[in-house]
Structures are given as structure tokens and as C-alpha cells.
Design goal:
It is built from eight helices and 14 strands. With about 280 residues, it is of the alpha/beta class. The chain folds into two domains: about 5-85, 2-Layer Sandwich (Alpha-Beta Plaits), CATH 3.30.70; about 125-279, Vaccinia Virus protein VP39 (Rossmann fold, 3-Layer(aba) Sandwich), CATH 3.40.50. Helix 7 links the parallel strand 11 (about 210-215) and strand 12. Helix 7 (about 220-230) packs parallel to helix 8.
């Protein structure tokens, strides 16, 4: 399969590398390689659309880093997924949750072990935002709860909720590759009480939830938060991440306008996760 590579150079590199990687993930880019001066992003040539990518970089040239340049390269049929998987390392959170690939060894004394075949889907557990949400989840009691994982990626958060005793879990992603990968990973971890759905917030409405996990991007959270609120049960919990620390005030204001009460906050590097309770 032919791939398109975006080679982006930035100054300063952070926090703009993480922001742009999150934005490109929403455009369907499958894997990323960070460098000292920026990063490289990859997408199957048949899925690449130049206009939204150009518009994205033009928008950040106006409001983002001091310097931003990018070039587009077409690559031959190298197995980029195999290359990416070869660099995939296990992730351990709070000594209680281990996220590993099938080719990694298990570890004794781990309370929750999640085995995923990453396949370049977003949400492998390496990103700070995923770790932040997992930290909240490890503190919570999911026994008998109904849970929604919006933007599920590899399904890590949904699988953890099931392992912690959730009665039923729904996992939704609008990226077909992530949807298929979550189905595979749910089966791999013997989770049989999960519905995996291909779509976005427009398919919400037929089910209500005790816990909603939304590790997406700032703009999507702001656009869809009211939809999450409508399907969140009274007394329920909404955990949101995927945004930079300097964006937390706008997320908080939007949640406050829906009468959601802040009940927790965690930060890691330049990223934040916020936990809200529905009165």
C-alpha cells in the first residue's frame, strides 16, 4: 500500500507537535514519528485529502508557532504498520494497569492487563491524555455502571471499564480503522459486554450512561459536550481530555454552562483531564 508522508518542521516544537498530531489524527492520519525539529505523519494514499491538510496548517500558521513548514511526500509500499509496531513499548500506569502488545511479556502483580494489537490507532496508552484518563478510572468504582467511550481509538479505556466491572460499555469512533481495531481488541481481551459502533456523536440518544469518557480534541469536545450531557445520567461522571492546559478554562466554562460540576483535575506535561459530575 502506498502512503503519504507529511514532514512538518516547527519552532518551537512544543506544545505544537502534540496539538498538530491530535488534529491530524482527526483527519485520518494513522501514525506519527516525532523528531527534534518537528514530526512526520503517515496516511494511506487512498485516504489522503490535500485540502483539509493545507487548511489546517494555514490556520496554525496564523495563530500557532513562530515558524511552521511542511512538505508532502509519496512513499512506496513499505509496511509502515509493521515498522510502527516494532517501536511499540508497553505502558504501565500507577503500577496497576499494563497496556501491552501480544508480543510483550506479561508482568506479575498487575491488577489490569490490557493486550492490544495497536495497528496505528490513536489511544495506545502512550499519550499523556490517555494516561490521565486511566488515572481517574483507577480511582473509580465501575461495578454495575453503564459506560460510553467516545473516540475509542484502540478501545483501551472501554476495555479497562469492562475489566473494572462495568455492566455495559459502548465504544464509538468515526475512524473506520479505530472501529475495527477496537472490535479486535475487545475480543482479544475477552470483553463480551461491549458494543463497538462506527460513527460520531450524531448516533447518541438511544442509551444513557453513568460514565462518559471523551479523550478527543478541544474543538470536538466543545461541539459535542451538550450531546454528552443529554445522555449522561443524573449523578453521572463525565471525564474529558485531549486538550492542552491553556484550554482548560474554555472547557470548564462550557461544562459549567451545562450545570456540570467539576469534581477532579489532573495534569501531565502540558495536557489536562477534567472530571465532572452531573447534579
Amino acid at each position: 500500500m502506498d502512503y503519504i508522508e507529511i514532514h512538518c518542521q516547527l519552532e518551537p516544537v512544543e506544545p505544537w507537535t502534540d496539538i498538530l498530531i491530535a488534529e491530524l489524527s482527526d483527519l485520518g492520519f494513522e501514525s506519527f514519528s516525532e523528531e527534534e525539529t518537528g514530526f512526520r505523519a503517515y496516511i494511506g494514499a487512498c485516504h489522503y485529502r490535500s485540502k483539509p491538510v493545507t487548511e489546517l496548517f494555514e490556520r496554525y500558521r496564523e495563530k500557532g508557532p513562530e515558524k511552521l513548514s511542511f512538505e508532502v511526500n509519496k512513499l512506496g509500499g513499505k509496511n509502515w504498520n509493521a515498522v510502527w509496531e516494532s517501536n511499540f513499548e508497553p505502558v504501565k500506569v500507577e503500577g496497576k494497569c499494563l497496556i501491552r502488545a501480544p508480543f510483550h511479556e506479561s508482568e506479575p502483580g498487575i491488577e489490569h492487563e490490557i493486550i492490544i494489537e495497536p495497528k496505528m490507532s490513536f489511544g495506545t496508552g502512550h499519550h499523556e491524555t490517555t494516561v490521565l484518563v486511566i488515572k481517574f478510572m483507577l480511582e473509580m468504582d465501575f461495578e454495575g455502571q453503564t459506560v460510553l467511550d467516545m473516540g475509542c481509538g484502540t478501545g483501551v479505556l472501554a476495555i479497562l471499564a469492562a475489566q473494572k466491572g462495568a455492566k455495559h460499555v459502548a465504544a464509538i469512533d468515526n475512524y473506520l480503522y479505530a472501529y475495527e481495531n477496537t472490535l479486535e481488541n475487545a475480543s482479544r481481551n475477552h470483553v463480551d459486554n461491549m458494543d463497538v459502533l462506527h460513527g460520531d456523536s450524531s448516533i447518541l440518544g438511544g442509551q444513557s450512561y453513568d460514565v462518559i469518557l471523551a479523550n478527543i480534541t478541544r474543538n470536538v469536545l466543545l461541539e459535542d459536550m451538550s450531546k454528552y450531557d443529554k445522555v449522561l445520567n443524573s449523578g453521572g461522571t463525565l471525564i474529558m481530555s485531549g486538550f492542552m492546559t491553556f484550554d482548560k478554562d474554555v472547557i470548564f466554562a462550557a461544562a459549567k454552562s451545562l450545570d456540570l460540576e467539576l469534581s477532579g483535575e489532573k495534569e501531565m506535561e502540558d495536557w489536562t483531564a477534567l472530571k465532572f459530575t452531573k447534579a
